[in-house]
Design brief:
Layout: H1 2-11, H2 16-31, H3 37-47, H4 54-67, H5 70-82, H6 88-104, H7 107-124, H8 129-140, H9 150-159, H10 163-169, H11 171-192, H12 202-227, H13 233-251, H14 256-270, H15 276-294, H16 300-333, H17 336-347, H18 351-366, H19 371-388, H20 393-407, H21 415-424, H22 428-435, H23 439-451, H24 454-462
Helix pairs in contact: 1-2, 2-16, 3-16, 4-15, 4-16, 5-6, 5-12, 6-7, 6-8, 6-11, 6-14, 7-8, 7-21, 8-21, 8-22, 9-19, 9-20, 10-24, 11-23, 12-13, 12-14, 14-15, 16-19, 17-19, 18-19, 18-20, 19-20, 20-23, 21-22
């Protein structure tokens, strides 16, 4: 009955969060087994979680970066590094999304932030608008895979696994996805005879390579001084940051400081300086320092607007989580999850076949539900089965999030699809057709990451998380 009520409300056009909470309330009223106040109690309990405190702060950090002109710096850095390659702006699009993914944590923020700049630049350089939209949509899926990631935080809370382990698990898969996307760009460039979009200048490329080296060497040196040199983490980090800011002022780097956002987050969590939730606050402080004090591209008036936008987004996300928590609890209490588990296990005890079935289900669900709602509904149903079959919950979390990100590119509910259609001023039909070729690298990544769990689990296991 609960499932029927939920589907009826969904089909009638009611928002998914209200449909979940409403179907649970109606079921309780009809059955009479529980007092109606249990709905409110369970909804409040669903968001009364310390890891969920990271959600508003990661949203705020992404909004601050997006409104402080950081996206232009990331774009110019990526252009200097790979813009001279054949199909240059396509490569810039992917690399820019890799970098911005370390700040926003959401695919929609990536598509709306960098997407506006990238699509306009590619159109001005003579690229097909459909190609520009397609590569922008595909690269936007990197946002929740490369840390920090809001869907990972939600999954970690639902599955009771480490947020830090999930963040680490997303790094190598994100790199793999970026490589496959850049190979796809190279294929289209070769097919259409596209050249580079800027001339190769050793001075420009070498400066970008120096910035890349700084980003790579700086955290390694800091980690070595703390772990092997016996330095106090807080003192060593403070000294290293002073050196970093001095180098940025001296050499006039384009994007070293913004790129350091995910580096500082992962480094702080692995060395024990802060928890993932505290890391979200650190990301906000870092964004405010860059926007208000260092680059001075963020005014206090803009800061207030960003905070209000963050409150609105956070309220939406938290209401979805609260509604899904009561719905998930009701699914468990009424035995629906146990019935589904028994049905699946009766069909197969093979992990590979279960992962195939789960992928198909999650791809389908991702086309209709917002990722936060989908995660909170699917985790209580699928994760117990995955655990019984020996599938690592961290690996399964990565697979789930990737499936749901691909779902964001599809009608009828794909939010990235709607954002890019508005940005590019294209119809939904043309936007959908533009995205179709880019499903090949995304689905190839999904297959590899599903059946080669070592790619996602190597870093967390190496660092003992």
């Amino acid at each position: 009955m609960l499932k029927v009520l939920f589907l009826v409300l969904m089909v009638s056009g009611i928002p998914v969060a209200i449909a979940m909470a409403g179907s649970s309330l109606i079921y309780i009223l009809v059955s009479g087994d529980l007092p109606p106040f249990a709905v409110v109690h369970r909804m409040i309990g669903g968001i009364d979680s310390f890891p969920l405190l990271a959600v508003p702060f990661f949203i705020l950090a992404g909004n601050l970066m997006n409104n402080a002109g950081i996206t232009n710096r990331i774009y110019n850095f990526a252009l200097s590094l790979v813009g001279w390659l054949k199909g240059g702006l396509g490569h810039v699009n992917v690399l820019g999304s890799v970098i911005f993914a370390g700040m926003s944590g959401t695919a929609i923020a990536d598509a709306a932030g960098l997407g506006t700049i990238e699509i306009k630049a590619m159109k001005d350089h003579g690229y097909d608008l459909e190609f520009a939209v397609g590569v922008t949509a595909a690269s936007a899926t990197l946002g929740p895979i490369i840390p920090p990631s809001l869907p990972f935080v939600i999954y970690a809370m639902m599955a009771n696994v480490s947020v830090g382990a999930l963040f680490l698990a997303g790094i190598l898969p994100g790199v793999l996805m970026a490589i496959l996307m850049m190979l796809t760009v190279a294929y289209f460039a070769h097919k259409n005879g596209w050249g580079g979009d800027i001339q190769f200048e050793w001075h420009r490329v070498s400066k970008a390579l120096i910035e890349t080296a700084v980003v790579a060497i700086w955290p390694v040196a800091l980690y070595a001084s703390i772990v092997h040199g016996g330095a106090q983490p807080q003192l060593a980090t403070a000294v290293a940051l002073v050196i970093l800011f001095a180098a940025d002022r001296l050499f006039k780097f384009q994007a070293v400081l913004p790129i350091m956002t995910p580096v500082l987050l992962i480094g702080g969590m692995t060395t024990g300086i802060f928890t993932p939730t505290e890391g979200a606050i650190a990301a906000c402080v870092w964004s405010m320092i860059l926007g208000l004090a260092w680059y001075r591209t963020l005014s206090w008036k803009m800061f207030v607007k960003v905070c209000l936008d963050t409150v609105e987004t956070t309220a939406t996300v938290m209401f979805i989580v609260a509604a899904a928590s009561i719905f998930g609890w009701m699914l468990t209490a009424t035995g629906v999850t146990a019935q589904i588990a028994a049905w699946v296990l009766a069909m197969t005890n093979e992990p590979w076949l279960f992962l195939l079935m789960a992928n198909l289900l999650m791809l389908f669900v991702g086309c209709f539900l917002e990722p936060t709602a989908a995660i909170t509904i699917l985790v209580p149903i699928l994760l117990p089965i995955a655990r019984q079959l020996g599938v690592d919950p961290v690996h399964f979390g990565l697979v789930m999030v990737l499936n749901l990100m691909i779902g964001l590119l599809h009608p009828p509910m794909g939010m990235v699809l709607f954002v890019l259609a508005r940005v590019a001023k294209l119809s939904l039909e043309r936007t959908t057709m533009a995205i179709l070729p880019w499903l090949f690298p995304l689905l190839a990544s999904l297959v590899v990451l599903t059946y080669v769990p070592a790619i996602s689990l190597w870093l967390p296991r190496m660092l003992g998380m």
